[in-house]
Input
Amino acid sequence: MPIGPEVVTTDEVDVSDLAISSTLNGRVMQSARTSQMLVDVPSAVEFFSTFTRLAPGDVIATGTPGGVGFARNPPVWMHPGDVIEVTVEDVGTIRNRLVAEEGAPGDWRWRPGQPLKSGF
Output
């Protein structure tokens, strides 16, 4: 989940209609606007406030636009050395190069639309 290196407040940016996108190695994978979210930001804050105390600096993860790599046909997987960039209009871009996680499994066991492999 891309967060940082800076977070902005609602007095700095109007979050109601910002372009958001992600690119993998320069290829656009996701592109949408916050105005297309199923639940707008004020409604999400109101909902979460009904059962948890929110404090300045809390982050609410709302999901992601269509285009997620594992749901593509064929699936698109990220690999060590790939560069992922996430851009939010009027906020900026966060860019990360993937590194191999020590001890990570060599193969993801699940593919959309297919049964789970044994041992999962």
The first strand starts at residue 19 and ends at 24. The chain has a mean pLDDT of 85.
